[in-house]
Amino acid sequence: MTITNQGTGAAQGSVLAAHGIEKTFFTTTPPAKVLNGINLEVRPGEFTVVMGASGSGKSTLLYCISGMDRPTEGTVKLDGRDLTSFNNKQMSKVRLEEMGFIFQQAYFLDNLNVRDNILLPALKAQPRERAKVEARVDALLKRFGIDHIANHGVTQVSGGQLQRASICRALATEPKVLFADEPTGALNASTSEEVMNALVDVHRDGTTVVMVTHDPACAARADRVVYLRDGLVVDEVALGPWTHEHSEQRSDFLLGWLRDHGF
């Protein structure tokens, strides 16, 4: 296992590049500045985790770089395209067709079964390719071991099954980047491990993953961990590819590194 401190920095050949990201919320008095000029680049196929104490700005950063929110200052580029110059309609199209999202809660529609919840956004993104999209969704359901609950209502399955369904939904459009915001935050330890195993499998297939988490055990699965404090990237560490063989050593190292940063 190779572990190296890289400093706050750049990646070569990035699929996602954020420069000078600032975010101020003007709905408070006085206005609250949450991000203070963040630079972050993510290489194609990389699994990057963003960590930091509560209030450090990690979720706000995820929303800004994924186009769910707009930074007050700075630029975000996806494959060289400046997303901060896109209007709302253009940005919605990019999120639908080129990005996948997993949240702490699944946010499924109660009136649709599991399969249809996964299928709906994929068909919206590719309406003329129904047969291809349905085949991809069915393959994902089988791959993540939930094909047997495809026709179940979303209230009839477990939290872990719903999060695996969320991964299927996120992957159904073959996104350039998969964003995950505390995907195991509402799960117990064993179910969290199931979900993280699924994300590691996705990453090994070559999908770029950017995840926010407060859980060091989850963060230890990533290639790289970026640490935020007061809306700034203060350090990062490259962990290398995750393996079961070195998982304990890797987790211990990361926990010590996080403690050194006051986590």
Structure description:
35% of the residues lie in helices and 24% in strands. A 7-stranded mixed sheet has the order 1-11-10-4-9-8-7, sandwiched between helices. Helix 3 (114-125) packs across helix 4 and helix 5 packs parallel to helix 6 (189-204). The two termini are 23 Å apart. It has one domain: Rossmann fold, CATH 3.40.50. Strand 8, helix 6 and strand 9 (208-212) form a beta-alpha-beta unit. It contains 8 helices and 11 strands.
Q: What is the CATH homology-level superfamily?
A: P-loop containing nucleotide triphosphate hydrolases
N/C terminus separation: 23 Å
At the third CATH level, what is the topology name?
A: Rossmann fold
Biggest sheet features: 7 strands, mixed
Record field, number of beta strands? 11
Return the structural class: alpha/beta
Major sheet strand order: 1-11-10-4-9-8-7
Q: Overall mean pLDDT score? A: 92
CATH class: Alpha Beta
What is the domain tally? Answer: 1
The helix content, as a percent range, equals: 25-40%
Overall morphology: globular
Number of helices: 8
The rounded Rg comes to 18 Å
Strand fraction: 15-25%
CATH architecture: 3-Layer(aba) Sandwich
Order of helices and strands: EEEEHEEHEHHHEHEHEEH
